[in-house]
Amino acid sequence: MVVGSSAVLAADFKRFEFQPFGGFTASGSIPLISDDDVHHGSIHVNSSFNVGATVAVNLNALDAVEALWQRQFTEGRLPAEISVPISSGNSPAFDLRIDQFHCNFLHHYEIADPKAMPYVMAGLGVTTYYANRNGHSDSRSYFSFALGGGIKYFFTSHFGLRGEARWSPTLLSASDSSFWCNIGGSGATCVIHLKTSLQHQLDLTGGIVFRF
């Protein structure tokens, strides 16, 4: 059966793939821990829908390299205690757009159904946060990586569907503490300096795959 699947994959081999996709991002909060290891709550990031696209180059029948762009439209909320003047409760919500640009490596597996191609993936790149509140906007870019897997199912040699689950943490630099304070506190200055932390995200996406 493996020999038969290999023959089908070789016969249907196409060099390029393009996939527009949409899905849902479960966003983890960003922990706010100061240099003296005191926890000051978290920046709450709402989970929301995402859209994006990938362009892949198939190196052979089983391995591929792809460029991924994904955009999430969401909101963030900053605890008032890390900015001044201090007010009761949380600061008002601010608009947050998160763009992710990754280079991914995919390895596919052969199974009994030659039209189905499960795969695992790993990638790295940059995640950019665009924040806006009351006309004040700013952006910061950070290193991020991803691990995940999914499955492609091809109805023809040129057309199929793809579903994927991906864990994509972003490393947030402590040197950019003021970015969150200025947006969440409407221009207020930080009263603490944050340590480096991770924001964890789980992306669930699906879309159409075009091969050529």
Comma- or semicolon-separated keywords:
Porin, mainly beta, eight-stranded antiparallel β-barrel, 212 residues, 2 helices, 8% helix, 60% strand
Describe the structure in your own words.
The protein is mainly β and 212 residues long. The chain has a single domain, classed as Porin (Beta Barrel), CATH 2.40.160. 8% of the residues lie in helices and 60% in strands. The chain has 2 helices and 12 strands. The protein has helices at 2-11, 177-184; strands at residues 16-27, 30-33, 39-45, 48-58, 63-77, 94-108, 116-133, 136-154, 159-167, 170-172, 197-199, 201-211. The strands form 2 sheets. It has an 8-stranded antiparallel β-barrel. Strands 10-11 form a two-stranded antiparallel ribbon. The longest helix is centred in the first third of the chain and has 10 residues, at 2-11. The protein is elongated and about 60 Å long.
Q: Helicity range of the residues? A: under 10%
Biggest sheet features: 8 strands, antiparallel, barrel
Biggest sheet: strands side by side, in what order?
1-4-5-6-7-8-9-12
What's the total number of strands? 12
Strand portion, in percent?
over 45%
- Can you give the mean pLDDT? 84
